[in-house]
Amino acid sequence: MEWKELLMQVEDIHKATEIISTKLKKPVIIENKSFELVSYSSSFDGFDQTQQKTILSKKCPVFIIDHLKKEGIVQRLERTSHPVRVHPIEDIGFRQRVVIAAKHMGQTVGYVWIQESDDWMEEEDMEFLRDITPYIGKMVYDLHKTTSEKDNRKDEVLWKLLNHEYSSESQLKKNAALVKISLPERASVIVFSVTESRYRYMLDYLERIVRTYKQEYRMYFLKSEYQLVLLMEAESEGESLRKARAFISRVKTEVGEEEFYCFLIGVGKEYDTLREIRKSFLESLEVIEVASFLKPRPETMPREFAKMGTYRYLAALYEKNSADDYYSEDLLKLIKNDREKQTDLLRTLEMYLANNTKGKQTASELYIHPNTLNYRIKQIQELTSIDFQDFNMKAHLYMELLLVNNVDSYYHRYLNVLS
After folding, report:
1. pLDDT of residue 152
2. DSSP state, 164?
3. Sorted alphabetically, which InterPro entries does this protein's record hold (predicted)?
4. Is 192 exposed, middle or buried (CB count within 10 Å of its CB: 0-12, 13-18, 19+)?
5. For labelling alongside 63, which of 185, 243, 293, 310 has CA 20 to 30 A away?
6. In 88-219, which ranges are continuous DSSP H helix?
């Protein structure tokens, strides 16, 4: 029986992968269109460093995907039904290989990778690859369709949990068991939202990262048009919050600092009952709502609901002060001085109060010498009636400064008084 006929008789993509590998006598990996691992041949153990990473993490490394796009290889695969030879990249352990797009109904649904190393494929093998990839494409498509249907059922259960749309916990657990979800008894919710609609593509990037690490961090995720919601599981007290911080840091490293600040991030408190997981979800959304209102400078506003403090009340203060036409005379003087003499007293005062009037820490965060800070504080005291020993005055000024320095419309109210 010919190899093609043999492959056409199997319905399991893992068996099909083994047949391709045995025929070509080379390691084979099949990925979906998102470069996530679908199958790999176990009969050959000569995978290079990059393919080993793909197998371990269940996804092609991001820097390889970026390289393939930069070199135009991904675009070339979209245009052709023929195999494409990709030359080695020695410094990252990427050996020479052949790749062909697996297509179904004219659309690329995945990729078949054959590692060549030093032994190049013959034309006969290339022809075999061209002949069988339409069938592989159909298998990848069917697998994706089945997986999507399962994911939709899982998503439905998780949304019901977060929105408290279930009749009883026992019924919820029963529905979760049917779709093979083990609902956590202790968890917190993390929400990633994009700052503007033009950054929605970043959620796709984030989803790839989540899929790569979801087993390591033991988390479920849900995706909507502008948000990605994570349910972070914990076995011990505080574990989900520690993992949330570690994962957020990892996302920042993976996407880069500039792109990272396209996200607004809210972390709800950790709870130990299913009923309260919705509470964590609402808390994370409140953080996002406040961050969206303020459009804060990077790393200034707490991401965790438990650390929000006065930030929770800024929207209400904004409404009241605007309605009452209230202004701080002290801040008006500092704004006037900053504009006329090009000083930075307003920002200095905010940082000084945020650090509980600790000079050394404030100077460090402002990247100025402590003597420079002392000079600025002296200027502030000479221009205003601020008493740094008065806690109530400091608390009030700090909240007003958060609005002035983070909400453009509020700052312009002050400018209109000065003009």
Report:
1. 79
2. T
3. CdaR-like_regulators (IPR051448), CdaR_GGDEF (IPR041522), PucR_C-HTH_dom (IPR025736), PucR_C-HTH_sf (IPR042070)
4. buried
5. 243
6. 123-163, 169-178, 201-217
d(CA 344, CA 333): 12
User: Coil, strand, or helix at residue 341?
Assistant: helix
Q: Which residue has the tokens 């939709």?
A: 152
Contact 248, 266 (CB under 8 A): no
Please give the Cα distance from 268 to 179 (Å, whole number). 26
In the numeric block, the tokens 């990249």 are attached to: 89
> What confidence tier does 160 reach under pLDDT thresholds 50, 70, 90?
confident
For residue 399, give the nearest of 339, 353, 345, 333 by alpha carbon. 353
**Residue 271: strand, helix, or coil:** strand
Extract the tokens encoding 66: 């970026």
CA pair distance 313, 293, nearest whole angstrom: 12
User: Cβ of 137: how many Cβ atoms within 10 Å?
Assistant: 23
Q: Looking at 98-102, 108-112, 299-303, 361-365, which range is the least confident one?
A: 299-303
Residue 146 has pLDDT above 80, yes or no: no
pLDDT in tens, 68-109: 888 898 899 999 999 999 888 776 677 888 999 999 988 999
Q: Are 267 and 305 in contact (CB under 8 A)?
A: yes
pTM for the structure as a whole:
0.66
How far apart, in Å, are the Cα atoms of 404 and each of 80, 157, 314, 335, 408? 56, 43, 11, 10, 7
Q: Under 8 Å CB-to-CB from 12, ≥6 apart: which residues?
A: none
